[in-house]
Amino acid sequence: MKATTKQVLTGATWLVVLLAMIGGTMLWQQQVHKSKPVTAKITATGTVTFKGQLLNSDNRPYIQVQLPKNLDSNRQTHLLKQLLTAARQQFKFRRFNLVSYGRGGLTATNYVEHTTTSLSPQHLVLMATPFNGTSRQSNNRRQTTPVAAESQTATLAKLIAHRHTIDSKMQVLIVAGKAIKADQPLPLQSALAGQSIFKPVVRVYQQKVLRSWRTQSGLLNNHQIGNTIQTFIN
């Protein structure tokens, strides 16, 4: 990597890390679309590899994170911490933002509950995260209120129980899609259930309900979502 690029990264106030538990990902804002991300991968045994190069013109560099699938939450959290530590050493950034989608949001939440202050993101954005599972029958409703204690899944209850360990300076945004069709896979209340984790702890908490996205690729390229994230991070 050229020295000029290193200077840009060192002087940057933050670097975006995209945690995607789905396949290859393209993200949101025009500034990001103009550049290709660095891909950071880690194997189940902890081997980290970086692919791609950050350019001098990348005023908002970002890393696409790929974690192994089919691992338990604690193991994924450990691997994410290991990967972010390696990325910070490689690219010399001091602060970063963490943007996650789907079940990746559960890993990100577990991560911020079990990491140090120095490795906590400045901004955490969680999109379409099933905090309380995907059931519509008994656990979740079509409303934005918190999930009642008796309807909380074991995963949500555990995350709530450990919320006191979260860095209070972190700013959190939860993005959900408004339920339009009865067969929409993620209930609105589940996607917003993270409010019971973060709202009592962090100084800045926001949640946004947007019109439903049709596909995963449509979600990640949606201009409305992009503008929401960009406004929040800026």
Describe the structure.
With 234 residues, the protein is of the alpha/beta class. It has a single domain (3-233), classed as 3-Layer(aba) Sandwich (Rossmann fold), CATH 3.40.50.1820. It has nine helices and eight strands. It has an eight-stranded mixed sheet. Helix 5 (154-161) links the parallel strand 6 (123-127) and strand 7 (171-178). Helix 3 packs across helix 4.
Which secondary structure elements does this structure contain, and how are they paired or packed?
Elements (H helix, E strand, L loop, with lengths): L2 H9 L3 E6 L9 H4 L4 E5 L5 E4 L10 E5 L6 H19 L4 E6 L2 H10 L9 E5 L26 H8 L9 E8 L9 H4 L3 H4 L5 E8 L4 H5 L2 H11 L1
Helix pairs in contact: 3-4
Shape: globular
CATH architecture: 3-Layer(aba) Sandwich
- Overall mean confidence score, pLDDT: 79
pLDDT under 50 segments (min length 5)?
A: 1-14, 20-34
Task: Determine and state the CATH class.
Answer: Alpha Beta
Under CATH, the topology can be stated as Rossmann fold
| Spatial gap, N to C terminus | 27 Å
Number of helices: 9
Give the SSE string.
HEHEEEHEHEHEHHEHH
- Strand elements, count: 8
Q: Into which percent range does the helicity of residues fall? A: 25-40%
CATH superfamily: Alpha/Beta hydrolase fold, catalytic domain
Spatial order of the strands in the main sheet?
Answer: 3-2-4-1-5-6-7-8
Q: What class would the helix/strand composition place it in? A: alpha/beta
Q: Which radius of gyration do the C-alpha atoms yield?
A: 17 Å
Proportion of strand residues: 15-25%
User: What count of domains describes the coordinates?
Assistant: 1
The main β sheet shows up as:
8 strands, mixed
